[in-house]
Design a protein that fits this description.
Blueprint (H helix, E strand, L loop, with lengths): L2 H11 L3 E12 L4 E3 L4 E2 L3 E17 L7 E4 L6 H18 L5 E8 L8 H16 L6 H9 L5 H4 L4 E5 L8 E4 L8 E6 L10 H11 L3 H21 L2 H20 L10 H15 L5 E3 L6 E6 L3 H12 L4 E4 L6 E2 L1
Parallel strand pairs: 5-6
Antiparallel strand pairs: 1-4, 1-13, 2-3, 4-6, 4-7, 7-8, 9-11, 9-12, 10-11
GO molecular function: ATP binding; diphosphomevalonate decarboxylase activity
Enzyme class: lyase
Keywords: ATP-binding, Lipid biosynthesis, Lipid metabolism, Lyase, Nucleotide-binding
Length: 336
């Protein structure tokens, strides 16, 4: 072991780093991997980072440890979850050219595995804290590439507000980038929780089934690219109506893949469908709003500041105040 590495190890073991990353909702969905190992998607995607849901993660590399110590939400996670974190840490250690165990403590302020992109905030926060604790000084693009290796949608949570993930073709050109400020800064998201437990079909399982068995997957890839261009145009022009319609339609096109897979499956439950119908009813009555749904039963209602009070009150009567949360566009990764 050379002297320079000894100095690096001593510095690492005494400098824990804490990072916060916010979750995001995909408006143009990412659904399917061309490269499972590198997490390279078949399609580009577009998301909105939210202020209310986030993950705080602290990482310290410590040569006195015999193995990685991983605590999530105050508990030792399952072996499957621990292995996923360890695999990601090996990527960080490889980049930093170190072989030091790490202590990781992470707290999610978002329901886990219920369709609210908890893995996005979790791995964006882990990428930021672990890379900095390991002595790496990554710019935002490189951090986005790293976060993608943990969870595809995590590459978008590196940035705030509207974010596009360019699908790319390899590890070097598949990363997210923020979109310019627009006239849609008054967007509000009413997050409706109808179920808090683990979903029966994980996002990874669902994507794989859709890609390999749905006869409509090739059409999805083509249509998704057109949806992305149209949504970017609506955002640039501040056109909320087009923005909402395209977001809602793209969500339904994604979920059509789950229904056409073999075996077929769905993330919806009865309350999901009832909420979708109520959104349409509100719209018919003159309150403009649209829904989007990721890989889970919970629904996000897209609206504007002028209507958010009425919409949130409507759904509070149906679901209870505790299951209705108003979110705004949120920031990118922060070091605490």
């Amino acid at each position: 072991m050379n002297f320079q590495l000894e100095i690096t190890m001593a510095t690492l073991s005494n400098n824990p780093v804490t990072a916060r990353a916010h979750t995001n909702i995909a408006l143009i969905k990412y659904w399917g991997k061309k490269d499972e190992s590198l997490i390279i998607p078949y399609t580009s995607s577009l998301s909105l980072t939210l202020d209310h849901f986030y993950t705080d993660t602290t990482v310290r590399f410590d040569e006195s440890l015999s193995t990685d110590q991983i605590i999530i939400d105050g508990q030792i996670p399952s072996e499957k979850s621990r292995q996923r974190v360890r695999d990601f840490l090996e990527i960080v250690r490889g980049k930093a050219q170190i072989a030091i165990p790490a202590s990781i403590s992470s707290t999610n302020h978002v329901p886990t595995a219920a369709g609210l992109a908890s893995s996005a905030s979790a791995f964006a926060a882990l990428a930021a804290s672990a890379s900095k604790a390991a002595g790496l000084h990554l710019d935002a693009t490189e951090l986005s590439k790293l976060a993608r290796r943990g969870s595809g949608s995590a590459c978008r949570s590196v940035f705030g507000h509207f974010v596009e993930w360019q699908r790319g073709t390899n590890d070097a050109d598949s990363y997210a980038k923020p979109l310019p400020d627009t006239g849609l800064n008054d967007i509000r998201v009413v997050a409706l929780t109808v179920e808090r437990g683990q979903k029966a079909v994980s996002s990874r399982q669902g994507m794989h089934l859709s890609v390999t068995t749905s006869p409509y997957y090739p059409a999805w890839v083509k249509t998704c690219q057109a949806d992305l261009l149209q949504l970017k145009s609506a955002i640039e022009k501040g056109d909320f109506t087009r923005f909402g319609k395209i977001s809602e339609l793209n969500a339904m096109r994604m979920h059509a893949l789950t229904l056409s897979a073999d075996p077929s499956f769905t993330y919806f439950n009865g309350q999901t469908l009832a909420i979708m119908n109520l959104v349409k009813q509100l719209r018919h009555q003159g309150t403009e709003c649209y829904y989007t749904i990721d890989a889970g039963p919970n629904v996000k209602v897209l609206c504007q500041q002028s209507t958010v009070a009425k919409i949130s009150a409507t759904f509070a009567q149906v679901l209870g105040d505790q299951n209705v949360i108003i979110a705004k566009p949120g920031p990118g990764v922060q070091y605490l």
